[in-house]
Amino acid sequence: MVRNSVRGTVTAVLAVASVAVTGCTSSAPDDGGNGERTAPKPRTAAKSAVKGGSIGGPGSACALPVIFDLAASWKPTAVQAAEDDALSELAEQGPVTLVCEIDAKPAGNIGFLRVWTGDRTGSTPRQVLKAFLAADPNAGRATYTDLKAGSLTAAEVGYTVSSELLDEPKKEQAFAVSTPSGPVVVHLGGLDSQEQQEMLPAYELAKKSVRLG
After folding, report:
1. pTM
2. Which domains does the chain have, with CATH numbers?
């Protein structure tokens, strides 16, 4: 409980300060088993992002089990938190660990695409996302959808994050895929819901282009 409280407080501070630690549907939405009302299903952004390269392959900034396209001007950075790092706790959420941050500030927005990876398990993408959200005490109003991300079987969740440090709940979303190396979660978070909406094209580009590395 202490760990979750720390995570929730620090995550909200990072969101407010913009600081970081360095398709077809096949099922109906549900509430994640917590009894909360579900949020509207995430909408696909109306505009498309201009491709500016890719991430995950040999020679890229982040070595990943998958490869996906990056929106122009978004800057990727590998994350390697040491065990004795004061912020290392924030680099773990449920079954996955933060390994790459893709910063939207060079493209004019305040937020990140964050990539999390985990060890091999028998969990489905939806189960991974549920465990991912269960580790965030400020997450709520979750809507889960099974879909295809690129050619891979995937799941997606749209949800809100609330905190006493935020004026109102903000929207966030993530998709997860399974790979032979383990699950991968790609998460989009912004300073507020408006930033989230403006960054959706970059998230959609990653989702539609993701493939095994």
Report:
1. 0.77
2. 2-212 (3.40.1000.10)
